[in-house]
Amino acid sequence: MTSFLPARTAAGLVAGVALLGACAGAPEDDDAVAASGDYPASVTSCDFTTTVEAAPAQVVTVYQGATEVMLALGLQDHLLATYGLDDAVAERWADAYEAIPVIEGDSAPSREELLSRGADFVYGSYISAFEDKTAGSREELADLGVAAYVSPFSCGTPETSRPASFENVWAEVRDIATLFDVEDRAEDFIESQQSELLEIEAQQAGEGLSIFWYDSGDKVPYTGVGTGAPQIIIDTVAATNPFASIKGNWADVSWEQVIAADPDVIVLADASWSTADEKIAYLENDRVLSQLRAVRAGSYVTIPFSETTPGVRVLDGAARVSEQLADLPIG
Fold first, then answer.
1. Does this model's pTM top 0.90?
2. Would you call 103 helix, strand, or coil by DSSP?
3. Does 137 fall in a domain?
4. Does 31 share its domain with 88?
5. CA angle, corner 20, sides to 17 and 22, nearest 5?
6. What domain count does the chain have?
7. Could you read off the pLDDT of 48-83 as tens digits, one per residue?
8. Where are the alpha helices (DSSP H) in 26-151?
């Protein structure tokens, strides 16, 4: 399966209308509106409102996060095709995923590809799915009778993107459930995650520990900072992040800053383009970085990249980090 760096036509076609209001911050109560019974249904994300006259039947998901939201809601029968994995789909959805055709290629599918397949809805994890060289804008797709939705965490600018939080993850799940008239499934899923979240928070596995979130990079480390999914996870396990004051989801910092912070634990995002093993080797073979107390103690926590982005897997990431912290000989 090809890995990608982050960066199926039904009766009731769809239309989208750009809105003037921003969708940053907490989700608004009117973000998901259904009129005249269940349809038409409308949701708003990234300054754009998508309206469907019936549940889309020919859906293409672009990137793993979008695919897994559909699978979490049991909507695999609506999927015409999917594109783009960061790593393996969660085991609980693996069988459903294996039955879905995969679009291969080095970039997200083009508008021509989507139209030739008969897509009536395109759901992307990142705004890059809707660039000129890929599917085109959501407005252009709407003019062609194809609805589109992009995750509200990837609107292209901080002003229009929602900050990462469990509530905003669940708001995206509710958006998709509204378009497909499966709101009950969404609430069941969210209630289950809320219960699990309380259990993880109660463990406080990271209390008193500082964590350096090592995403990628060697000469310049790329780390999780103040308003992204890594920070959600760090907060959930009651640890601290020396780079929490930096605005954004991820940021470049310097090794000098990491050395000054001298964290208790290093969390390693495991991705095909930057594996956990590669990062460990870099740390342990560097004369200075090898002296960090976390490196000397081997205090590493490894997490799949797909659990480090805001989506239905981020709670899995919090559970994984909590479990591994509890097993480390520190504290």
1. no
2. coil
3. yes
4. yes
5. 110
6. 2
7. 999 999 999 999 999 999 999 999 999 999 999 999
8. 64-72, 91-98, 111-117, 138-143
